[in-house]
Amino acid sequence: PETPPEPNAPEENNKTAAGDLERMLKDVHDWEAKNPAAHEELRNRYEKVGHAAEKTPLGMKVMDEVRAALQRVDEKRATAADLVWKDMEKCSGEAAEKRDYDEALRALADVPVPWVEFLKARRDKAATALKAEAEGRIKEAQRRAVEASAALEPEQGLVALKGVENLKYAPLAEETATLK
């Protein structure tokens, strides 16, 4: 004959499940204290606790803590990404000020691996703006050079091109050299 379950068995199982969840959450908190910059791994660990909590009736308290922890990790990651971006932007800006658009674009292309996806949109927008700026300067000088040549004033064309001769932008370097 089968033994009927004790009246307190479900309640005891819920206490055990809640205790396991709290232990799992504490383990992730402890790991976070030792590895505060491991944002992706922290998200994965907290999400694992969250998935476990979803499967239990008493997991709501733990889920609230998991949501708060995930938000905290995301805020830390955003702050860290902003610092990485500021460094990239500074290097790129310094190169652009020296009219070295090739170096400025390289500074934007060198996104550290953990930040590639996170900074892609910012990087792409800044690179597009740099390319447009370089191309605008060069194309304007080229236009003036062609007009001067058509007006039989080649010296004026060379003056226009001289204004961009120290500008470094590989995609249009050959075109500019051909005009000279």
Description:
The chain is an all-alpha fold and 180 residues long. The chain contains 7 helices and no strands. The longest helix has 38 residues, at 60-97. The protein is rod-shaped and about 90 Å long. The termini are far apart.
The overall strand count is 0
Uncertain spans, ≥5 residues at pLDDT below 50? Answer: 1-13
Major beta sheet summary: none
Look at the structure and give the mean pLDDT.
Answer: 83
Tell the overall outline.
Answer: rod-shaped
Q: Into which percent range does the helicity of residues fall?
A: over 70%
**Count of discrete alpha- or pi-helical segments spanning 4 or more residues:** 7
Q: State the end-to-end distance.
A: 102 Å
Roughly what fraction of the amino acids lie in strands? Answer: under 5%
Could you tell me the radius of gyration in angstroms? 30 Å
**Structural class by sheet pairing and helices:** mainly alpha
**How do the helices and strands follow one another from N- to C-terminus?**
HHHHHHH
Q: Summed up, what is this model?
A:
By secondary structure, this protein is mainly α. Helix content is 79%, strand content 0%.
